[in-house]
Design a protein that fits this description.
19 strands, 570 residues, 20% strand, Beta-Lactamase
């Protein structure tokens, strides 16, 4: 009798271990699925859940324990074997099964150093489609360049850089990491180090090794030991001093930020919410390059229901894909390429909401105005460094018919990006009376202001200790400064009648428009950013003629995401 009980107990333990082990594997597969670009997560999770349920039923209904165990192992082996086959084809072999069960996944400093000492890569390199990139063999001389590239990219990722530039000078190469929109020069490289890096990037990204003068573009995906993927845009171009390389780390998710999180004030957010309730008219989003314009345009699209409204985009360089939104790339280098004709063909499909990433000429502006005035909403991105009233003036000068230019206008949004103070190491201080007076803040008022701490601390032994959150840069992430000008019927009439910019600006101010500098000062007073950062971004805000003053833009030129989560500054 006791023997029978013990045997059943052993059978129950074996059953429990098998089910628990498969549940662990299934959990890992469910997480790992995010790395596979060509697999349907819903289908795979249904297979995993179904196989788990089948295993439980087999234990219950099969009368023979051995038969139930064998059937369980067959089901588990079939699912796991097929998944492994699919995964290896795209990512290479999975981690050790024991590590999957214990959760010991990751890329520790010890593992990194061990790989480096052994002449191994710390990162995996995939093509833009997600397949394994063609890497040189270990005994190939080009492999040394790949190791140098691997070390460069890994160090940049550790430093939170979103962009790496190798710029040739007369004798060597300058290395610049760009983090949160600001370039930080690193130690320079000898040509004997930099040139193999450039050649290895070109080799694994499919660029021509012989072409050293004309610009080339491609893409890669780098993946760390924890299987986190980072898309990498590759650009090379020739200069008089040599070949230049730019690597931009970007993630499309960083462009998908809700309106609430891009940095608008409560008043601005309320005004834009009212604007997005309508489905007609033209909304212009303007900023210099790399100042978050694309992210704001995408956030505005996200305020509309893509399931009940037909939404399309026309962009030179689309940054993200959206469910139920049709994205149309425009290649200006294509034969007989015409932006206005391409836009006109899209308008014939009658989308309710249309995002246009640029306006290169008057013909495009005319198509935009006519379509936006016919019960359709258009969001237009412009590369321009002026304030909102000046943008309106530049827009109406683009069209001979001022009435046509003014009629569909609903709002103009101007923006800049400032860095967020690191919450871990920022330093509190009380601004002096002179500073408060310059900022038009009440003298004597106690403001809990902060400034960046860019000096590493020292441990008890005197060793430098960098801030774990910002690497002692003093800032982490970016947010937007905005100027939202809502065009009332009165202001549109002023635009159509050609009234001076100052009159339009005064009318907008009376209507509650907050200027960029005022928004910056408010964020300084709230401890979000520093006054030095606001000054850095807005110090060049003075009327002048430059290429930024042209009504011409490419949405792809704005490669900066905004948001309190850190944003993408690529």
């Amino acid at each position: 009798m006791h023997g029978f009980i013990y045997i059943n107990l052993i059978f129950a333990v074996i059953c429990f271990v098998v089910i628990l082990g498969w549940a662990k594997f299934a959990t890992w597969i469910s997480t790992d699925l995010k790395q596979l670009t060509d697999q349907n997560e819903v289908i795979w999770r249904s297979i995993l859940l179904g196989s788990l349920a089948l295993n439980i039923l087999l234990w219950i209904f099969l009368p023979n324990f051995a038969a139930a165990l064998i059937a369980n192992l067959v089901v588990i082996g079939a699912v796991f074997g097929y998944y492994t086959k699919v995964r290896v084809a795209q990512l290479g072999p999975p981690p050790n099964p024991i590590d999957m069960l214990t959760g010991k996944l990751g890329n520790t400093a010890e593992q990194r150093q061990a790989k480096k000492s052994a002449g191994q890569l710390s990162l995996s390199y995939l093509s833009g489609s997600g397949r394994q990139a063609p890497l040189p063999k270990v005994d190939d001389p080009a492999y040394n360049g790949l190791l140098l590239l691997d070390n460069l990219v890994f160090q940049a990722m550790e430093a939170r850089a979103q962009r790496i530039d190798l710029v040739p000078s007369e004798q060597a190469y300058d290395v610049i990491y760009t983090t949160d929109g600001v370039g930080y020069p690193q130690s320079g490289m000898q040509r004997s180090t930099a040139e193999p890096i450039i050649q290895s990037v070109k080799l694994i990204s499919g660029l021509s090794l012989e072409e050293r003068r004309r610009p080339q573009k491609s893409s890669l995906i780098v993946m760390d030991a924890a299987h986190n993927r980072t898309p990498l845009a590759v650009r090379t171009s020739g200069t008089t001093a040599g070949e230049k390389l730019t690597l931009v780390m970007s993630n499309s998710d960083n462009y998908k930020i809700p309106l609430d999180n891009i940095g608008l004030s409560s008043e601005q957010l309320s005004a834009i919410r009212e604007i997005t309730k309508d489905n007609d008219g033209l909304v212009i989003v303007a900023s210099p390059s790399h100042m978050g314009r694309t992210t704001t345009l995408y956030s505005l699209l996200g305020a509309h229901d893509a399931y009940t409204r037909s939404i399309q985009t026309l962009e030179t360089n689309p940054r993200a894909d959206f469910e139920s939104i049709t994205v149309t790339p425009f290649d200006p280098q294509a034969l007989n390429a015409s932006h206005s004709k391409t836009l006109q063909s899209i308008c014939l499909k009658d989308p309710d909401i249309l995002l246009v990433g640029q306006c290169p000429d008057a013909a495009t502006a005319e198509v935009i105005c006519k379509y936006a005035a016919s019960e359709h909403r258009i969001y237009l991105g412009l590369r321009a460094g002026s304030d909102a009233p000046t943008i309106v003036d530049l827009w109406r000068k683009l069209l001979p018919d001022k009435e046509l230019a003014a009629r569909p206008l609903r709002a103009v949004i101007c923006q800049r990006l400032v860095r967020l103070l690191c919450p871990t190491c920022k330093i509190a201080y009380q601004p002096d009376a002179e500073t408060l007076a310059k900022l038009n803040l009440p003298v004597g008022r106690q403001i809990q202001a902060f400034r960046a701490n860019t000096q590493p601390a020292r441990d008890p032994k005197g060793n430098l200790v960098k801030c774990p959150d910002c690497a002692s840069l003093g800032y982490r992430g970016v947010t937007g400064l905005f100027e939202v000008m809502v065009l009332t019927p009165e202001i549109r009439d002023m635009v159509a009648r050609g009234r001076p910019v100052d009159e339009i600006r005064n009318a907008a101010r009376k209507n509650g428009m907050m200027m960029l500098v005022e928004h910056g000062i408010r964020k300084f007073a709230l401890g979000i950013t520093s006054i030095q950062e606001v000054t850095r971004v807005l110090s060049s805000e003075r009327p002048k003629k430059s290429r930024d003053e042209k009504i011409t833009s490419a949405s792809g030129s704005s490669t900066t995401g905004v948001g309190y989560s850190g944003g993408d500054v690529s």
